[in-house]
Amino acid sequence: MLPDDAFRAKRDRTIAALQQWQRALADCARIEEEAAATFWRLAVSPFAAGACPFEVILHQRQICDLAIGPESYEGRSSDELDRLPAMAEAIAAGRVLTRTKSSAVSGLVLSIETEVRLADGPSWKADRWLVSGIKPGAMLRNDRWYLPYRR
What is the pTM (predicted TM-score) of this model? Predict the structure, then answer.
């Protein structure tokens, strides 16, 4: 964890960058911004069908929650704050993949992975396994790419 003053400075820089980014989206997405004593929230719902919705909640407890498309990743480390503006730009540009892995035998969904391909560095990835303790054997992979907010 960072000292409180260092975290607040990092959080405030991230919020300012995300606010600047979201102002440019008024013509292509519905934006909801909310600030409270314990958190700051930004939700972006693109108007274009097939584009990826995005939500971030920055908590005073030095964690953040992300929702990218249908997936949510809660309790993420504040170490990711610096990447959030680049992630938001990549999501709006349509560089988001949701990958579902399922059993070839039963069709049971085993895991869901989200990948955001950043323009200036390595991709941000997160996944969640829905079934544990099972040897997956042959798996099927279904990739869903999202469209840009503007076309």
Answer: 0.90
